[in-house]
Write a sequence for this structure.
């Protein structure tokens, strides 16, 4: 047996001698100036706070007379801890060492235990002070956490972590009393207040200047436990809706505190409660509310890592949403029959949204056949309502459901589902384009290309290439030049699959231009490098049919990074197509003057053969063939003489 904290502190009541009135006036100043590195200073400050004149009345009404001396000392210790927290970890350590040195739990009988035996902790001081509070003090304490604005001696002198922890324990104890009395509503209020106070204490532990992560984790667990008490009370009253919400709060507290197993259990209980709510709504014919409750149940199960239960809940949600949609469609038809167009439109919108939600729920449950039906219905209704964006989204999701269905089919049957996906995506493209959502239209074109790959063997590469080209145009309209360039590259690869080399080269050329546009606003070095690579690929596919364009592509690639190798390739290509002037320029850029002179010589001879003697003179000079230059000059002058006489 060991002493209770109250008995222990009573033993040290001699620490509280009377002090003079002038001493009281300077109590707070002395407390703020305490030097925690000096035990004597701590001891003096502890005397000061227990004799503060400004809180005499508070002590009289807040503390039980039979334990007032011990509770004064506990209050003083906690007040000192608040000041130590503000000064940092060293100050807290000095104060803790002082408490351990001077206050220890003792056996009920016998001499004091040794230094290695159980010591007083800050948390035990909080518990001891809680036991000494009057009902009035408890109300004051709870006020500081319930509204967050209560200003009294607790909020002035005690740290948030101590005050909130104490308030939480007080509220939880009250909840236990009310529970055993059968006062359910008062128990719920108290437990809820305890949970909120424990949560506040945990946050205060996290914000403390010293590492108190273990205490924070413990407080979060206590908050979760208190929330569970609230949920149990609501469940007993048949309020499964409120129980479910509180269980989600409990689970979140456990998650934050790192108590994964307890969190999973709470999430599972929350899901079960939401399903009971859904069942009640279904019995009342409120399928819309039942559907929402089922989705909430699924969310809780997913968070609790119970995917099996979540799938079942999603399935139930899908059924409920489908019933809502069917009822709304019937209402729309009835309104149309009596020409109440505004009401008919509202009913159609309700039906479309319900079909959408049903389809999403069925997709989560893996019932893609039902998802396909409901996405189709949603898309058609949104199209009828001329709501292009949701219509496009519905068609895109329909394509997803068709694709997922195809993955479950044999190869032959799968191709048919992929063809249907293509048709759905084509509708999505039209709607996105009408809504000027060019980026989303580009995405849909890319998905069309991907779906086409699975429609036949071999794939229809010409159609695939065209889809990517359209995607690139849409991305360009959206000024997403990086995506446009990638789409052009995909188109080029598709053209290459069917040996359409010039079309592949043209697509790579456009990709390069798009990369250069992208480089103007983002990652210039990266996109310029990609542009140069695209130009090289364009040159590769232009060779050998269009060496003139291949040479130009090499030239463009070389211009980007001034690569000697590219200049050489450009020069060789230009030389092959007889553009010796450009070949010579490229040789010079490649650092090959002799080859450049050779190109100029070829240019000069070509000019001579064409009778362009004056131009040939300059070419011969650049080639270093001065004698030939003089001969060309003579011929030029002779030609001018004949022209003059003529």
């Amino acid at each position: 047996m060991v002493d209770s904290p109250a008995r222990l502190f009573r033993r040290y009541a001699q620490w509280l001698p009377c002090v003079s009135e002038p001493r009281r006036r300077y109590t707070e100043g002395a407390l703020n100036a305490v030097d925690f590195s000096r035990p004597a200073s701590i001891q003096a400050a502890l005397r000061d706070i227990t004799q503060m004149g400004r809180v005499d009345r508070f002590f009289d009404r807040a503390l039980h007379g039979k334990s007032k001396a011990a509770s004064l000392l506990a209050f003083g210790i906690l007040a000192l801890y608040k000041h130590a927290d503000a000064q940092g970890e060293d100050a807290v350590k000095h104060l803790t060492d002082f408490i351990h040195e001077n206050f220890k739990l003792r056996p009920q009988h016998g001499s004091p235990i040794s230094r290695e035996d159980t010591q007083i902790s800050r948390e035990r001081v909080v518990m001891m002070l809680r036991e000494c509070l009057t009902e009035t003090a408890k109300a004051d304490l709870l006020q500081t956490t319930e509204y967050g604005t209560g200003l009294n001696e607790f909020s002035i002198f005690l740290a948030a972590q101590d005050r909130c922890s104490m308030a939480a324990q007080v509220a939880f104890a009250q909840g236990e009393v009310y529970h055993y009395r059968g006062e359910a509503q008062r128990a719920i209020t108290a437990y809820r207040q305890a949970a909120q106070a424990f949560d506040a204490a945990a946050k205060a532990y996290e914000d403390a200047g010293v590492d108190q992560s273990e205490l924070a984790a413990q407080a979060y667990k206590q908050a979760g436990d208190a929330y569970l008490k609230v949920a149990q009370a609501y469940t007993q009253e048949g309020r499964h809706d409120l129980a479910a919400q509180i269980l989600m709060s409990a689970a979140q507290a456990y998650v934050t505190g790192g108590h994964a197993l307890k969190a999973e259990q709470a999430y599972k209980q929350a899901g079960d409660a939401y399903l009971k709510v859904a069942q009640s709504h279904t019995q009342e014919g409120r399928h819309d509310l039942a559907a929402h409750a089922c989705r909430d149940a699924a969310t809780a199960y997913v968070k609790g890592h119970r995917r099996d239960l979540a799938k079942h809940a999603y399935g139930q949600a899908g059924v409920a949403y489908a019933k809502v949609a069917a009822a709304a469609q019937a209402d729309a038809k009835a309104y149309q029959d009596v020409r109440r167009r505004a009401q008919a439109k509202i009913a159609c919108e309700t039906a479309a949204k319900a079909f959408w939600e049903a389809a999403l729920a069925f997709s989560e449950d893996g019932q893609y056949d039902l998802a396909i039906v409901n996405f189709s219905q949603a898309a058609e209704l949104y199209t009828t309502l001329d709501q292009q964006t949701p219509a496009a989204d519905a068609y895109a999701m329909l394509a997803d459901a068709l694709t997922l269905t195809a993955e479950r089919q044999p190869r032959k049957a799968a191709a048919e589902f992929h063809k249907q996906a293509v048709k759905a995506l084509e509708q999505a493209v039209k709607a996105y384009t009408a809504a000027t959502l060019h980026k989303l239209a580009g995405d849909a074109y890319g998905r069309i290309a991907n779906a086409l790959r699975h429609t036949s063997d071999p794939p229809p590469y010409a159609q695939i290439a065209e889809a990517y080209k359209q995607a690139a145009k849409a991305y360009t309209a959206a000024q997403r030049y990086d995506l446009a360039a990638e789409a052009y590259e995909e188109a080029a690869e598709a053209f290459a699959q069917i040996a359409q080399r010039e079309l592949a080269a043209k697509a790579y050329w456009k990709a390069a231009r798009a990369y250069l546009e992208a480089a103007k606003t983002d990652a210039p070095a990266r996109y310029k490098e990609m542009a140069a690579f695209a130009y090289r690929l364009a040159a590769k596919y232009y060779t050998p049919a269009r060496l003139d364009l291949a040479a130009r592509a090499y030239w463009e690639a070389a211009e980007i990074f001034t690569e000697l190798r590219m200049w050489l390739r450009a020069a060789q290509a230009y030389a092959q197509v007889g553009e010796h002037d450009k070949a010579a320029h490229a040789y010079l850029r490649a650092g090959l003057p002799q080859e450049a002179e050779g190109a100029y010589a070829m240019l000069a001879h070509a000019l001579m053969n064409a009778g362009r003697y004056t131009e040939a003179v300059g070419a011969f000079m650049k080639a270093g063939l001065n004698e030939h230059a003089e001969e060309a000059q003579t011929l030029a002058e002779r030609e001018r003489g004949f022209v003059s006489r003529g």
